[in-house]
Design a protein that fits this description.
Elements lengths: L4 E6 L6 H11 L4 E2 L3 E2 L14 E2 L2 H9 L3 E7 L2 E6 H9 L3 E5 L2 H10 L4 E7 L3 H11 L4 H9 L1 H7 L5 E4 L3 H18 L3
Parallel strand pairs: 1-7, 1-8, 2-7, 3-4, 8-9
Antiparallel strand pairs: 3-6, 5-6
Bound molecules: guanosine-5'-monophosphate.
């Protein structure tokens, strides 16, 4: 059977990643999506088991202790992680799975699955635009925005360890580029 592929998509907060992933999944319904666990409270419209598995900090820490996470990281003061229970069956079935995870998680996935992962970093066209998007989104309080924004230079510096960096200017172009790199990876059995 064909081996599964983990397509990691990372970007700074406000980098348009959620929209890109939504459009990618619309165009390629065969792609699976890795639902992470988090201690962050749900945003308006988010559903448990669809967007995230929302856990208390105690529940999350118990899962860490029980070795249930393939990777986990603290991002903006909350815990986020990918569970074995969710990901491993999909990988074994040879699926192509999209992971919306931060750069720590992405680089850990690359270490764990060097042959079966493809790391895509979405770079904002400019830092100013990123700030405007984050501000306009209106989902975070000002203190949250400042917290998210302070991480951006470090995140962008980590992009050089990713397999592909795409400047996310145009939604259609970005999504098509991601589809192209996935297809190339599969065709050539590597990057
Ligand atoms: P948000 O709170 O905006 O949904 O996500 C915040 C950050 O956490 C984003 O960069 C997102 O990619 C990252 N994230 C979401 N799930 C996971 C996960 O399972 N593992 C890691 N390492 N990061 C995650």
């Amino acid at each position: 059977m064909q081996r599964g592929l983990l397509v990691v998509i990372s970007s700074p907060s406000g980098g348009g990643k959620t929209t890109v992933i939504q459009e990618l999944r619309r165009k390629c319904p065969e792609l699976k999506y890795s639902i992470s666990a988090t201690t962050r409270p749900p945003r308006k419209g988010e559903k448990n088991g669809r967007d995230y598995f929302f856990l208390t900090e105690a529940e999350f820490r118990n899962k860490i202790a029980a070795g249930e996470f393939i990777e986990w990281a603290e991002v903006h003061g909350y815990l986020y992680g990918t569970t074995r229970q969710y990901l491993e069956p999909l990988l074994q079935q040879g699926e192509t799975i999209v992971l919306d995870i931060d750069v720590i998680g992405g680089l850990n996935i690359k270490k764990l699955y060097p042959q079966d992962s493809l790391l895509v970093f979405l770079k904002p066209p400019s830092v100013k635009e990123l700030f405007t998007r984050l501000w306009k989104r209106g989902t975070e309080a000002t203190t949250e925005i400042v917290k998210r924004f302070s991480r951006v230079p470090w995140e962008i510096a980590k992009a050089k360890e990713y397999d592909v960096v795409i400047v996310n200017k145009d939604l259609t172009k970005t999504v098509n580029k991601i589809i192209e790199v996935i297809q190339n990876y599969k065709k050539h059995g590597g990057r």
